[in-house]
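Hi there. Long-time user, first ticket. I'm pasting a complex I've been working with (about 1263 residues overall). I'd like to know whether the download I got is complete or cut off, because the file seemed smaller than I expected. Thanks.
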Amino acid sequence: MSLSHYLVLAAILFTIGAVGVLVRRNAIVVFMCVELMLNAVNLTLITFARSTGTVDGQIIALFVMVVAAAEVVVGLAIIMSIYRTRRSASIDDANLLKY
Amino acid sequence: MSDFPWLLAMIAVPAVGAAVVAALPRERALLAKQVALGVGLVVLLLAVLTTLAFDAGGPRFQLTTSVPWIPDFGSDFALGVDGIALVMVLLVGVLVPLVVAASWHEADAGPRPVRVFFAWLLLLEAMMVGVFVATDVLLFYVFFEAMLVPMYFLIGSFGGPRRQYAAVKFFVYSLVGGLVMLASVIGLYVVSAAVLGEGTFAFDTLTRIDIDPDVQRLLFLGFFIAFAIKAPLVPFHTWLPDSGAEAPVGGAVLLVGVLDKVGTFGFIRYCLPLFPDASRFYAPFVLVLAVVGILYAALLAMGQSDMKRLVSYTSISHFGFIALGIFAFTIEAGTGAVLYMVNHGLATGLLFLVVGMLIARGGSRRIADYGGVAAKAPLLAGAFLVAGLASLALPGTGSFVSEFLVLIGSFPERPVFTVLATLGIILAALYVLLMYQRTMHGPARGVLLQEDPAEPLPEGGGATATATLTTPRRTLRVADLGRRELTVVAPLVALILVLGVYPQPLIDLIEPAVVATLDDMGASGGTDR
Amino acid sequence: MSETLPADGLLGWSWLLIALPLAGAAVLLLGGRRTDRWGHLLGTATVGAAFLLALLCTVQLAGQDGTPADVELFTFIATGELDVTAGLLFDPLSAVFVLLITGVGSLIHVYSIGYMAHDPGRRRFFAYLNLFVAAMLLLVLGNSFVALYVGWEGVGLASYLLIAFWYTRPGAATAAKKAFIMNRVGDVGLALAIFIMFAQLGTTSYAGVFGSVGTLAGGTITAIGLLLLLGACGKSGQFPLQAWLPDAMEGPTPVSALIHAATMVTAGVYLIARSAPIYDLTPTARAVVLAVGALTLLIGAIAGCAYDDIKKVLAYSTVSQIGYMFLAVGLGPAGYVAGLAHLLTHGFFKAGLFLGAGSVMHAMDDQVDMRRFGGLWNKLPVTFATFGLGYLALIGFPFLSGYYTKDAIIEAAFDRADVWGWLLGGVAILGAGLTAFYMTRLMLMTFFGRRRWTEGQHPHEAPAVMTVPMILLALGSIGAGFVLVVATPLADWLEPVFGPPEEAAHAIPPVVVAAIVTGVAAIGVLAAWLFVGRREVPVTAPVRVSPVTRAARHALYADAVNESLFMRPGQWLTRALVWVDNRGVDGAVNGLAAGLGGSSSRLGRAQTGFVRTYALGMLGGAVVVAGALLAVTAG
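Hi, the file is complete. Here it is re-exported in full:
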């Protein structure tokens, strides 16, 4: 398995995540897609860390995981409260924050 | 005695005074006024003592104080005065107490507390003194911008019906100019760092370094635009009529009398010595603006129906004369221009005050709403006439001396511009006398007319009774100047007349500084023939 | 001009001449109503004291053979190369003017005590009158062109204040403004002349300028001369700036007598005479002076024939007579003395005529329309007698003042002995005839014929306080000419100023000139009798008149020309500029502000609130950044 295999896999995962964020309406799914993109980035970071023999990339990946965890907590809480008030988890229904 | 930090005191006293006035309880309005007046008089006293401590024949900057301010940038809190700054500080010292007295009831009726008005006024005084006495370019810039804040609130909180519009316009205009200047200030620092190895904002050092002419032209423009907006020169002038008309009278006096002078002060203090080559390069362009401004604004003044706008436009015309004097690069014209700043402050200040007193009586700013006031209020009319005659530079008033010096000093160097500018004195006579004639002369008319108490109708005389009813007798009811107003007007009238007959002491103060400025420029000084 | 003495003795006090009336004005203006009861007496006393002082100073001057005395007072303006000292120059020329101003001024002050007795603003009137005397004395006593300029504008101010004395009348207020502004046009000329002097010679004092003016190029001297002439035209009501003077008659009559007849309007003549060393070097400018004088002489005389307002006729007569004086001083050394002599005698008889007119108006409830007068000679005997003497002096009746001085001017014109001399002399003689015509018309309409008074008028002679000055001026009208020209020649007195009088070779013997002038004047008188005296004078002016008469009634359309050339275009320009400034300049600024605001709110529309739009934006942005990075690293 060469370096490029990992990178291609990460790219595929990232693309799936990005498309999912753009096309899906359900907030939970969008959220999961964001997680997918984050993990794709993590994969890239670790790949490069391994190839260069340093630990910097792995450390950053750990940071990303921590941030992602925090984000899940806050994000799910927001989605829950929106769902409670609007009876919908569609992100297109929550568009009041505009000009 | 000479070790006393006079200049610092003149900034600190009104600033502290402003804080004290602002901290007074709302219901102590009278106390706020009294404190403000007291502080104003103390500053006047300090200004006079400073003048006495100043040695006209001594070094250029005197009474200097300097403490490190932002050492990393090489900027000091450096204060000092030369003759030019000194007369401007004197002007501030004279005008502020008079403005306080003239604005005694200005804020009484408004929704905002009286103390706020006077606190802003005193803070403005502190900033104005600071801007004239700073000898550090960055410090100058800070005062230059800080000056806007009190004036913004004076216009925006205590002004006329369109005060919001006027205040925002004033602020945005000044801020744009200020930011362009900031760019130049930073540029100056960078240039000084390149030349000296270590950057500095000290005015004295900056005047001594040689700057590449191309760089000078760019940096000059930054300063020039800021000052041209402040002064204001045509075509950067349209904020002034709005601000002048909407500002409370006291604010308008300080705005036109002092604040705008910062622009012309900046020309002679900063543009000329810092960028001598650029000044010479741009001089024809500036002179065109100046002369166009003199004639254009004078014609516009004639077309105004609002007295305060009219006075504002006359000031724009006068600023053209000052700019002409500064950019003619002769001792006579330069001295005349600085003297013009002082005399214009007194004359236009008086004109604004008197117009304000008339407006306070009639409640209207329109010229057409008045007529024949002189018959009932001779003192008001007399003060109005003196102010108007000073504005049209009649001999015997201080303005004549300065206008004459500007023109006679500019003529040898720039005859064409001077001849065109001289035509402005005809227009000046027109706009002053038109306004005077329409408001003070002629039969009584306008808003000051009040119906006489109705006479009892004759019994049964139906037809004649209706005839008299259709044309009720109306007489002009207007109070002449009261004691407070007289104490405001009289010192200004006296100063205008004294400076018209014996201006030499002021000239002696100003001339060395102008000579030093022209020496910094490497200009020949004086007139070549 | 060459040498001056430091002033000692009384001459050292000559600044008091100015200070006295100035102090009077200050006391009256600042004292307020407290001074109402004695203000007029103080005002008169200060001018009277100035007259006495002037007499004593003149005696001392005569004692030192007319050597000018220089009085240095204080440094007025000194900066750079400019050094203006406030100083006075008391020489024979200024002495003549000082005596005229304070002498006639005192008489008119006395007269005004009576004339203004019932006016509530009498104190203010005397204050302004004192102010005028002070400014006028500064004008003639100053030792530099700057001092002259200060006095020059000072008298303009006093004139403004006095014309607008009855300011509630719109006509008076407008006339005052018009006078001030037309004067300012002239002042610009004077100011520019001073600028040229400073630029070229570095000085503005008489001594400095006259001493070195010869070093200048001819064109520069001519420019100075023409600019000074512009100033003189403004102040003296000469073509093309003559239109303000008749309007100035809106002021009280003593003002018309003092300012707009005897003194201020002759300041232009003083200026040209004082600047003789300049004009002596520039024949071109002098020729223009001649042309202006001759033209104005005719304009004034023609307009004087058509007006029905007694004061306006006298005003146009003044315009015309000052034209004579300009003509004289334009002739150069031959004419200076003649012009000044005429100025002095004119000061006497024209002031007397105005005071007489004031007396008539006083008697007729301020009526000025001559068609409403008539037959007043036996009701106002003193006025009639003094006015009549002034009239005879003005038309050049043999051996009265005007006869000597006007003839001197006409002779000097003929003495040029070229075609221009003949032309100018002819114009002057024609003017004399017209003068005789309009003055006779005035006399006939006012004092003779049927009484055409408004009902209820009871004319009465003025009190002694008014008639005594009239009588004194009438004496001057009789004798001044003889005294000045024949008995103690003015030419000798003015010799230190203008040099020794030349013995001109007369082209035509003076007797012949005198005979011709007298003859032409007689024809004028006869014509007036035929047109006016023989017939009934209609109470309203005839409407169907010849175009010539109509033009004369409109003062040859001077006002119409000013209006259509300057006033209307000026108003139009002002309106246009106000529009440009509001819509153009300010519009551009406000438009910029509105444009910024509009585009910001339009940009704000991009914030739709849809999360996915933002996400797409972020993705797009990331792709662009990545692409740009790739392009940079690859390139």
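A couple of notes from our side: The radius of gyration of chain B is 24 Å. The CA atoms of residues 307 and 355 of chain B lie 7 Å apart.
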